[in-house]
Design a protein that fits this description.
With 83 residues, this protein is mostly helical. It has three helices and no strands. The termini are far apart.
């Protein structure tokens, strides 16, 4: 099943926000409005990246994160000359 652009969650939320902004529907609570905007931003950023993880063990993900942090630390650390 394929969804048209108008049928995506992001488009639906954006449509609701637009209708609220244009006064077509009742005002949305400011906190909820910010949550909806953050949700749309998160979905757009997450789906635009290629770093998806499906059906992985959380421990494996933690190991990958630790390895990435160690790599970044080592990469940024200057090499000291041995005496």
């Amino acid at each position: 099943m394929y969804l048209d652009d108008k049928d995506t969650i992001v488009k639906t939320v954006q449509n609701i926000l637009t209708q609220e902004q244009n006064g077509e529907i009742s005002p949305i609570n400011e906190y909820i409005r910010h949550i909806l905007k953050a949700f749309v931003y998160f979905i757009n950023k997450t789906l635009s990246s290629n770093r998806f993880r499906f059906c992985e063990d959380i421990e494996e993900i933690k190991k990958d994160i630790i390895l990435e942090e160690v790599f970044e630390t080592v990469k940024n650390k200057p090499i000291e000359a041995s005496r």
